[in-house]
Write a structure and sequence with these properties.
Strand order of the largest sheet: 1-2
Mean pLDDT: 88
Number of strands: 2
Shape: globular
Low-confidence stretches: none
Helix content: 25-40%
């Protein structure tokens, strides 16, 4: 959060869910995603309340399916959260690779 006081853009990259995908370990991947959600996304969403304007985008850099244990070029799910509100919502089943593949894009 300190970096956002001085910079307009901050990029945070976390490897834990990707590494769990390479290992093919479902339990570990779920734990890594839950920890990312709590310790990174949760902290950022709480901290940006102190800023007048903000945008946050959360997404993986690529899929790493457990069954394949390697990166693929498939679409990835993403979410953009903004102080401006009025976000467009697409109706999809979940925040996962399969839902991203099935989403209709214009």
């Amino acid at each position: 959060m300190e970096a956002l006081k001085k910079k307009d853009f901050v990029y945070v990259h976390v490897e834990a869910p990707d590494e769990a995908g390479h290992m093919g370990d479902l339990r570990l991947k779920i734990e890594a995603i839950e920890a990312f959600d709590q310790k990174i996304v949760g902290v950022i969403l709480e901290g940006i309340k102190n800023f007048k304007e903000y945008r946050v985008m959360v997404l993986p850099d690529h899929p790493t399916p457990l069954a394949l244990r390697t990166h693929t070029g498939d679409p990835v799910p993403y979410v953009i959260y903004s102080s401006e509100g009025g976000a467009e919502k697409r109706e999809i089943e979940g925040f996962d690779e399969e839902s991203a593949k099935e989403a209709e894009f214009e």
